[in-house]
Amino acid sequence: MNLSPLDIAALSVAAYIVGHLVTRSFRRAVDLSGPPRDSFLLGSRKALNDAPDAAVLFEQWAREYGPAYRVSMPLGADAVVLMDPKALAHFFSKETVTYVATPLGKFFTENLIGKGSLLVASGDVHKRQRKLLTPGFSTAAIRKLTEVFYDSAYKAKTAWDNLIESNPDGSIIEVQQWMNNISLDTVGIAGFSHDFGTLQGQQADVADVFHSLGHAPAKPSLMRMLIFNLAPHIPWLFKIPSKRSSILTKLNESMGQISEMLLSRTREQKAEGEEDKSVIGLLIKAENSDSSLYMSQEEVMAQMKLLIIAGYETTSISMTWALIELAQRPDIQTKLRDELSAFGSDPTYDQFTSGLLYLDAVVNEILRLHPPLSELSRQAAEADIIPLSTPTRTASGGLTSFVGVHKGTRMLIPIRAINRLTSLWGPDAAEFRPSRWLSSSIPGEGKEGGIPESARAVQGYKNMLTFSDGPKTCLGRTFAVTEFKTVLSVLIRNFTFELRDGPKSNLKFETTPGLLPRPKLEGESGTTVPLRVRRAD
Ligand code: HEM
Ligand SMILES: *[C@@H]1O[C@H](CO)[C@@H](O)[C@H](O)[C@H]1NC(C)=O
Ligand SMILES: *[C@@H]1O[C@H](CO)[C@@H](O)[C@H](O)[C@H]1NC(C)=O
Ligand SMILES: CC(=O)N[C@H]1CO[C@H](CO)[C@@H](O)[C@@H]1O
């Protein structure tokens, strides 16, 4: 995008006016200390964006100001950052009623997937939509879907066997694209009885558009961040053509087309008396229902798009990070392979849940260190008083055990930073060390698991906030964890993974903005994660 100095001046004026208006509505600042506003337009976002690792900065601020503090947001607003377990438990218990989507979150979600999605719904609407979808994600449902997860994993395995066959020393495989295709095909079959077929070489528009998102610059420019933050106030700004916005528009369109096609197919099947047992079946049933569990056509479409995105983006990012970490730690990879090989057959859903402790530990450790959603933003719909387990600093330098928020106060939950707080997880919190999850054999020490007592104060799945918590906790969690375990179990048993340029090479990985931040090899373009893959026998 090219903006002339005049455009920039006009934007700055607009920013100032909007900033002024926004600031006025947020004037009743919370009584907390926090880092100074060192960028007028972007506030603390600038420092977070410039930091090599935002999680380190969040933690440093927590040490300086206490476990709840104020940061300045773009255009004059403030936000309360919560990093205290008791405060977080309170916050999540009041989701959808006291804490709701921000205007910015709503604006972008609606632009991408339309109005009426579960993701930004609150109150009774959220309750109704969630109740309607929940049966599709029950334990019984996921137990059945495990077979679908295996099918996808085996399709990749077979393709890799063929790639490697001609190369005794293994092949360089761009694993991220494979994990993308595994996730997309899986959510298609599992959620909508539709095979996108990307694992078998079929083109899928959705996959191609998702893929093109990975070619944006690694760090957003100041101008892009500004436009991003102004967009809810001045929607036409979003229409200024940029590579990213045109891809997002295309993504909405291609998800719309495939959803429309699948919905009309399922409607026809229903008319013929055939019932689809996957999530799309639930949606169509709700669309035709006059009970309290109905959904409008607009809502049905929005949930379809939400499920494609949620099923695709997050799971593929997690699985890609797993292969990266394992490629960098051959010792851990071997230990995992040994556990899986000793097991012999393909584990069932129940065996994944109750056995295979090292696989469970590796998966937990990846989810802890690389949560695909690194932050959550909310806004208080009403005033609230949040209790803390450790006192925090007030604006005047005193200490308080409660945070008072006003109606309209922004909330920021830095998931990734909380998952790796040294005050909770110990001095090696930022290290990839799956064995931290194994229970200690020393009597009296950590019967329920090896993780420290301090970390257990955090609620959420396995004391992490990766799947969020409370009434809006990830609906697809069991789906995602089971898919993750299934795919890893097949791939790690059959293949070994090594950094592209050899085990001792100094290759590093960084993140690049896809829809969510995605891993890529540092210094190379696109979302590439090439690894050397060999057969494991
Ligand atoms: C590793 C994989 C995944 C992670 C880390 C993850 C994480 C999350 C998080 C943090 C949220 C809360 C977002 C918010 O409130 O703003 C969420 C919501 C949601 N996720 Fe996931 N997710 C994953 C996979 C999936 C899958 C595979 C599906 C479905 C097939 C799914 C479906 C959903 C849905 C429907 C919601 C909205 C729930 C609500 O608002 O009540 N997720 N997920
Ligand atoms: C993934 O799927 C897309 C389909 O759109 C295809 O272009 C790409 O080649 C596939 N990649 C792999 C590694 O299978
Ligand atoms: C998203 O796509 C739908 C068609 O599926 C279209 O009606 C809608 O206007 C699009 N929204 C945006 C913001 O482009
Ligand atoms: C060579 C090898 O280990 N092959 C294994 C590939 O994975 C399947 C199941 O995950 C096993 O049955 C094979 O033995």
UniProtKB/TrEMBL annotation:
<dbReference type="InterPro" id="IPR036396">
    <property type="entry name" value="Cyt_P450_sf"/>
</dbReference>
<dbReference type="GO" id="GO:0016705">
    <property type="term" value="F:oxidoreductase activity, acting on paired donors, with incorporation or reduction of molecular oxygen"/>
</dbReference>
<keyword id="KW-0349">Heme</keyword>
<keyword id="KW-0503">Monooxygenase</keyword>
<dbReference type="Pfam" id="PF00067">
    <property type="entry name" value="p450"/>
</dbReference>
<comment type="pathway">
    <text>Secondary metabolite biosynthesis; terpenoid biosynthesis.</text>
</comment>
<feature type="binding site" description="axial binding residue">
    <location>
        <position position="474"/>
    </location>
    <ligand>
        <name>heme</name>
    </ligand>
</feature>
<dbReference type="InterPro" id="IPR017972">
    <property type="entry name" value="Cyt_P450_CS"/>
</dbReference>
<protein>
    <submittedName>
        <fullName>Cytochrome P450</fullName>
    </submittedName>
</protein>
<feature type="region of interest" description="Disordered">
    <location>
        <begin position="510"/>
        <end position="537"/>
    </location>
</feature>
<dbReference type="GO" id="GO:0005506">
    <property type="term" value="F:iron ion binding"/>
</dbReference>
<keyword id="KW-1133">Transmembrane helix</keyword>
<dbReference type="InterPro" id="IPR050121">
    <property type="entry name" value="Cytochrome_P450_monoxygenase"/>
</dbReference>
<keyword id="KW-0472">Membrane</keyword>
<keyword id="KW-0408">Iron</keyword>
<dbReference type="GO" id="GO:0020037">
    <property type="term" value="F:heme binding"/>
</dbReference>
<comment type="similarity">
    <text>Belongs to the cytochrome P450 family.</text>
</comment>
<dbReference type="InterPro" id="IPR001128">
    <property type="entry name" value="Cyt_P450"/>
</dbReference>
<keyword id="KW-0479">Metal-binding</keyword>
<keyword id="KW-0812">Transmembrane</keyword>
<dbReference type="InterPro" id="IPR002401">
    <property type="entry name" value="Cyt_P450_E_grp-I"/>
</dbReference>
<keyword id="KW-0560">Oxidoreductase</keyword>
<dbReference type="GO" id="GO:0016020">
    <property type="term" value="C:membrane"/>
</dbReference>
<dbReference type="GO" id="GO:0004497">
    <property type="term" value="F:monooxygenase activity"/>
</dbReference>
